[in-house]
Write the structure tokens for this entry.
Amino acid sequence: MSRFYVKSHQITGDNIYIEGDDFNHIKNVLRYRVGDGFIVCADDGRAFDVTIMAFEDKKAVCKITAEIEDAAELPCRITLYQGLPKKDKMELIIQKAVELGASRIVPVMMKRTIVKLDDEKKEAKKLERWNMIAYEAAKQSGRGIVPEVAKIVSYKEALDLSKENVYNVIPYEKAEDIVNSGKVMKEAAKCDSVGVFIGPEGGIEEDELNLAMELGVKPISLGHRILRTETAGLTALSVLMFEIESNR
């Protein structure tokens, strides 16, 4: 069943008002009619079965028929702090991170980051594009929310942001204890919020790792192979998702 996303202010009593591009998609692309139904997800985490009651000027008026439990959302909020990669790799990372259950993606400028975004307009355009990819991935994978792609931050700013998480991990190619890493991921999966730090091409520098460890971020191994930046984050998220789902 199709699903659409709204802000909580678009909900009034038992009615939900769908506007903008989604209104056009419902009426002119899907050609829904009065009486047709679909799922609507609100930005506060609620989800509803709705029925179209009327098409008004540039908006669809939908009546809530039931509030539903959305099993697509993990009970643990995962934030991916992704070292900014070059070219279009970030687009792939965002798409797959959303599919794997990440609640937020934070692009991070690190010491080995190759890309330099000095133009505010270009950065804003990138951010708009990234959030659209997150939106499309959320719809495709049946997510209950649209994960946010935050503005680009420095590594120290990312570490400050991570303090709001209960648990944080950082895969590191020189970490060796895979058994202990498994235990760390099992512990992380039991928490309400987890942060995952991933380095850019070239990896994380040792002083960056040490700074993270001083703040309680746990280094982990993802195996004996060196993974690309676009592979490492998705591997860590996959492990976390499996552990979290196993705890349900």
In short: The chain has a mean pLDDT of 92. Residues 120-141 form the longest helix (22 residues). The helical segments are 20-29, 89-99, 120-141, 155-162, 178-189, 206-214, 229-246. Residues 157 and 187 are 25 Å apart (CA to CA).
